[in-house]
Amino acid sequence: MSDGYLDLNWRFRESWTDMPTGRPVGSTIGSRGGIGEDGRVNTALPDDPAALLAALRPHVAHALVTTDFDGTLAPLQVDPEDSRAVPGTIEALTALTRRGATVAVVTGRDARTVVRLGGLDAVPGIVVAGVYGAETWCAGELLTPDTPAAVEALRDRLPATLADVPADPAVWVEDKRLSLVVHARKADDPVAALAAIREPVTALGEELGFEVHPGSGVLELRLPGFDKAGAIERLVADRPPSAVLYLGDDLGDLPAFAEIVRLRERGVPAWSVAVEASAVPEAVAAADVRVPDADAAVALLTALAQD
Ligand SMILES: O=P(O)(O)OC[C@H]1O[C@H](O[C@H]2O[C@H](CO)[C@@H](O)[C@H](O)[C@H]2O)[C@H](O)[C@@H](O)[C@@H]1O
Question: What EC number(s) does the entry state (predicted)?
Answer without folding.
Answer: 3.1.3.12
